[in-house]
Write a structure and sequence with these properties.
By secondary structure, the chain is mainly alpha-helical. Helices cover about 75% and strands about 0% of the residues.
């Protein structure tokens, strides 16, 4: 029996693809887990106190630490990840280490600021940090990516329906 020769390059390439897939799944889990829960708490906080949420900022400055900017940073990250998931289907999604680190840093900063706003003893920041260190298996984490992709598709369809209703009226 002959052993199949593998080059260090092919092993490195395979590990890089696995890392990129894990990055995409971890990012989708970040958005669906602590970020969604935190945004729900902020909405609940505002409805309880009868305050309106501040208007959204479509493309906030990275140094803007306002409530609306931080909400928008998380929303933008969610859209970015959902597009990666949708565009890669049916293949496994890939998120490079560079984009992953940038996304994680941006979202983590927003979560920190929003936790400070909520005065919740950094509840969601701890969840983000835990998720950042948790062992991930791309095969078992695929359902997070599928859920985020589904949410994105539903929102896109809802937006088209709303746009059609707006044009009718």
């Amino acid at each position: 029996m002959y052993a199949m020769a593998t080059s260090p390059y092919s092993i490195e390439l395979t590990l890089n693809i696995i890392d990129q897939t894990t990055n995409a799944y971890r990012a989708s889990r970040l958005i669906l887990g602590p970020c969604s829960d935190q945004l729900r708490d902020i909405f609940h906080h505002h409805t309880q106190s009868s305050h309106c949420l501040p208007p959204s900022i479509n493309n906030p400055d990275p140094s803007d630490r306002s409530l609306s900017a931080n909400i928008e940073k998380i929303r933008n990250a969610r859209i970015f990840i959902a597009r990666i998931l949708c565009d890669s289907y049916p293949n496994p999604p890939k998120l490079s280490n560079t984009y992953y680190r940038l996304l994680w840093q941006t979202v983590r900063g927003a979560v920190l600021d929003l936790d400070t706003y909520l005065n919740n003893e950094y509840k969601y920041l701890h969840a983000v940090d835990f998720l950042g260190k948790e062992v991930m298996n791309p095969v078992t984490e695929r359902h997070y990516a599928e859920e985020l992709k589904h949410q994105f598709e539903v929102e896109a369809a809802t937006g088209k329906i709303n746009q059609g209703l707006y044009q009718i009226s």
